[in-house]
Amino acid sequence: MTEAAQVSSLIRHLDFVIRDTFCLVQSCVEAENSRMSTIAATEFLPIVATGAATRDFMVVSLHDVAPSNQQIANTIVSELARRGVSVCSLLVVPDYHHQGLSTRNQEFVSWLRALEADGHEIVIHGYFHERPRRAKESLHDKFLTRFYTEQEGEFYDLGYEEALSRITRARDDFCASGLKSRGFVAPAWLLSKEAERAARDAGMEYTTRLHKVCDLRAGDEFAARSIVYSIRRNWRRGISRICNATLFRYLEGRPLLRISIHPPDYSHPAVWRQVTGMIEKAIGSRTATTYQDWIAQQRLRRGM
Ligand SMILES: [Zn+2]
Fold it and tell me: I need a surface site. Which of 24, 61, 139, 194 has the fewest CB within 10 A?
């Protein structure tokens, strides 16, 4: 090859390299811009992988997480991971039954931060998880606060100011401990309208109820019944298992399956067998996700 031909070949090669590099940089910038607009649109991270978008979803939530049950909660999280549920919604109580602030326990906080780093979400779950009896309660109030839940419906009839104070205190406390809580779920899902308004005003992005998931910022509600067990008495456990077996079949075609676990469920073999059986069956066709990611995807779908 002559010297002129060598120079010409070198120039063509350089031109190719420059164009190729430009295209690479441009697509990186576009990808980054697209990622940024996604973040701006949802204010949530991380977004679920697009490969999973065609599948149905499942959120497994673990309720009443506190330092006093950290060990069993950790065992449950590991058992779930073993069955393909790599991320869960962890409902953490800021001061469970006045036992003391959860965030004061450094070992507990470190454990939560590690789980959050692995993709689990930390949700604020009430504040004390306790509701003192009121004078002159109606039959309806008594049924919900004493029979349906055992004096745990803290936010059932809490006024706006007190609800706002408890949720913002928990939010700031969790944030100071390095936990990024975006959601609030009331104990036993009993959340008064005033308390729901307080949760929204405290910057909470979402809440859940027994029958639905609520995007507090967008004002959207998604019908999705949760499977949950009542285990306080032997007969309740029996009825729960029968009802949940039927409910699981009924929910099979739904886009979002919700399974709510409480730490004591693990100690009842028949209950735990059924929970894990449902999860093993569902994981074949569903992707385990968090409420945070699931809501982010609904917002994207609606072009928010
Ligand atoms: Zn609870």
Answer: 139
Domain presence at residue 5: no
Neighbours of ion ligand 1 (CB under 5 A): 63-64, 187
- How many domains is the chain partitioned into structurally? 1
Q: How far is the CA of 241 from the centre of ligand 1 (A)?
A: 19
Q: 285 CA to middle of ligand 1, Å?
A: 28
| CATH label of the domain that carries residue 35 | 3.20.20.370
Report how far ligand 1's centroid is from the alpha carbon of 63 (Å). 5
pLDDT digits (tens), the chain, 304 positions:
444 444 444 334 433 333 333 333 333 333 333 333 333 334 554 444 444 555 899 999 999 999 999 999 999 999 999 999 999 999 999 999 999 999 999 999 999 999 999 999 999 999 999 877 776 777 677 666 656 566 788 998 899 999 999 999 999 999 999 999 999 999 999 999 999 999 999 999 999 999 999 999 999 999 999 999 988 788 888 888 999 999 999 999 899 999 999 999 999 999 999 999 999 999 999 999 999 999 999 999 888 7
* 129 Cα to the center of ligand 1, angstroms: 6
User: What is the Å distance from ligand 1's center to 70 Cα?
Assistant: 15
Q: Give 125 Cα–ligand 1 centroid separation in angstroms.
A: 7
CA of 188 to the centre of ligand 1 (A): 6
What's the gap in Å between 32 CA and the centre of ligand 1? 39
Asked whether residue 18 is assigned to any structural domain, the reply reads no
Provide the residue range defining the domain that includes 283.
31-303
In a domain, 286, yes or no: yes
In a domain, 118, yes or no: yes
